[in-house]
Specification:
131 residues, 3 helices, alpha+beta, 25% helix
């Protein structure tokens, strides 16, 4: 990670990339930078769990820092309990709940983790700064 583009005030933050590969990381990062994606989810046991107020450096598909986001809300829901409002805030595809369910069923399936009753950490965030 090239920290030379990261302002000193963010140097100690944890970092991550969205998705499970370079293309998806870049696609989702673009949605964040454009203000379309203001939410994300992960399995409840992933190491990138967050707390409200925590800031993160978001990496692009090549592992380069691109922006900082700040978690604003965390809620735990089962896969089937995710609602249309949250799906819309995730900003992907046509932003519908049906699209969200299919895309996330595929995403968690690629990881071998999908279950209809799986618990998710549903996070809302705000964009703080783009590098």
């Amino acid at each position: 990670m090239n920290l030379s583009v990261v302002p000193e005030r963010y140097q100690g933050l944890r970092s991550f990339a969205f998705g499970d590969g370079p293309d998806l990381a870049d696609e989702l990062l673009d949605l964040v930078i454009r203000g379309v994606k203001t939410a994300t989810c992960s399995t409840e046991d992933e190491p990138n769990t967050s707390t409200p107020g925590e800031r993160w450096i978001v990496l692009d598909g090549r592992g380069q820092p691109r922006c900082v986001i700040e978690s604003t809300e965390i809620a735990y829901r089962r896969f089937g309990e995710v609602d249309a409002a949250f799906a819309y805030e995730e900003g992907e595809g046509d932003r519908s709940l049906a699209y969200w369910r299919e895309a996330h069923r595929n995403y968690f399936g690629r990881q071998g983790r999908f279950r209809d009753d799986m618990m998710l950490m549903c996070e809302r965030f705000r964009l703080v700064e783009v590098f």
